[in-house]
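Bit of a strange request maybe. I'm writing a small parser for structure token strings and I need a real example to test against, not something I typed by hand. Could someone generate the tokens for this chain?
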Amino acid sequence: MEKTVCSNCGSPNIKLIPAGVSKKTGRKYNAFWSCPDCKMTHNTDQKGKASEMGQISPKNDSLGAVMKRFDDIERMLADLQVDLDDLKNHRT
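Reply from user aminoacidic:
Good idea to test on real output. This should exercise your parser:
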């Protein structure tokens, strides 16, 4: 059985918020996933299944979350290196 986790932080505390009507604006909204740990929201498909969420098995729950964070950090470092190279080229 697979478990839905937050694709941003890997938290298993993700909650499905059902479709409804905004009390503030009166507009209808679709169901979505909400993570209380990182405050991110994620869209769902029509059946409430995670369309943008990570699906990992309980066996590698922690490992999957850690690997996702490493991938995120690696992308941020690559972007930072590009910015640093651009800054260096601009100074010379």
